[in-house]
Automatic annotation (TrEMBL):
EC number: 2.4.2.28
Taxonomic classification: Bacteria, Bacillati, Cyanobacteriota, Cyanophyceae, Nodosilineales
Name recorded for this polypeptide: S-methyl-5'-thioadenosine phosphorylase
Xref: InterPro entries: MTAP, Nucleoside_phosphorylase_d, Nucleoside_phosphorylase_sf, Purine_phosphorylase-2_CS
Gene name per UniProt: mtnP
Protein source organism: Dactylococcopsis salina (strain PCC 8305)
Record: residues binding substrate: M188, D212, Y213, D214
GO MF term set: S-methyl-5-thioadenosine phosphorylase activity
Entry keyword ATP-binding: no
Gene3D superfamilies: Nucleoside phosphorylase domain (3.40.50.1580)
Domain of life the protein comes from: Bacteria
SUPFAM superfamilies on file: Purine and uridine phosphorylases
UniProt-annotated site: Important for substrate specificity, residues: S170, V225
Amino-acid positions noted as binding phosphate in the UniProt annotation, renumbered to this chain: S12, R54, H55, S87, A88, T189
Catalytic activity: S-methyl-5'-thioadenosine + phosphate = 5-(methylsulfanyl)-alpha-D-ribose 1-phosphate + adenine
Membrane spanning residue stretches: none
Length: 290
């Protein structure tokens, strides 16, 4: 079975990673259905990296339709310990401009239609999620962006990512509300992914790539897919440079993340009393606790 230490989830605009070498395409099955697409596993900076196009390589899945559980389960099967999530976002702050990159450290959940736990069916677990992003991985991403000094790109460390349901973009009232909460960016995908990654004991951090000012800004047109696409191409090129540098840094000194032991204090159900079927379904996460 193919293995990779680092996973990359590419969002809108990032459907492949050009720098991967010795690639193999791996289709994985999971107890939670099929992942968004086949994984492309290749070598980057001397380490195996598993790339997954979040919406599929032809962008055929809406945020609500994304098989988040299958994607994260498959990452775990591959032995992934770190996930870098590259995602397009709208800015909720004047000083965060299109082409900038944000490494959020908080999320607000405005989704309604997502399943964001692997647990249930006889096994109850409550993971800690006060700090939903791996701080060390976030630092590596921020340092990588800063080190590269990319044209027209200002890095922002910290900030709150509002995860909305979509697929329609926000109303102005919603956009003003998120701004009044002090949130930094808005997107539609990262919160369920971050929760499931934490349950899977995988360190997770978001590389948020700004494409627009949503619909709150008087001097900028309200977001449309055309506006987003205008920035996606440049963002995708920049994101690949950042990911390459971050992979080099992770490989040089793999950070020990609190996420790697998140289940240690989270499972309430005595596993010797739990249904065998559920234990089997969750084996890839639970094996070290059985
Ligand atoms: C194409 S604009 C809206 C779309 O883009 C973002 O996707 P991702 O997070 O996968 O980069 C946003 O969350 C929406 O899904
Ligand atoms: N303004 C926005 N709202 C939600 N998701 C986005 N992705 C990119 N821009 C966005």
């Amino acid at each position: 079975m193919a293995q990779a230490k680092i996973g990359v989830i590419g969002g809108s605009g990032l459907y492949q990673m050009d720098a991967l070498q010795d690639i193999e395409e791996v289709k994985l099955e999971t107890p939670f259905g099929d992942p968004s697409d086949a994984f492309i596993i290749g070598t980057l900076e001397g380490t195996r990296v598993a790339f997954l196009a979040r919406h599929g390589r032809n962008h055929h899945l809406m945020p609500t339709e994304l098989p988040f559980r299958a994607n994260i389960h498959a990452m775990k099967q591959l032995g992934v310990e770190y996930i870098i999530s590259a995602s397009a976002v709208g800015s909720l702050k004047e000083q965060v401009k299109p082409l900038d990159m944000v490494i959020p450290d908080q999320f607000i959940d405005r989704t309604r239609n997502r399943i964001n736990t692997f647990f249930g069916n006889g096994i109850v677990a409550h993971i800690g999620f006060g700090d939903p992003v791996c701080e060390k991985l976030g630092d590596i991403l921020y340092e990588s962006i800063s080190h590269l000094e990319l044209d027209e790109v200002t890095p922002h460390r910290g900030g709150t990512y509002v995860c909305m349901e979509g697929p329609a973009f926000s109303t102005k009232a919603e956009s003003y509300l998120y701004r009044s909460w002090g949130a930094t960016v808005v997107g539609m995908t990262n919160l369920p992914e971050a929760k499931l990654a934490r349950e899977a004991e995988i360190a997770y951090a978001t590389l948020a790539l700004v494409t627009d000012y949503d619909c709150w800004h008087d001097d900028h047109d309200s977001v449309t897919v055309d506006i987003v696409i205008e920035y996606l191409k440049k963002n995708a090129v920049n994101a690949q440079k950042v990911i390459k540098e971050a992979v080099r840094r992770i490989n040089e000194k793999p950070p020990v993340s609190e996420a790697h032991s998140a289940l240690k204090t989270a499972i309430l159900t005595p596993l010797d009393k739990a249904p065998t079927e559920t234990k089997e379904k969750l084996e890839v996460f639970l094996e070290k606790y059985l």
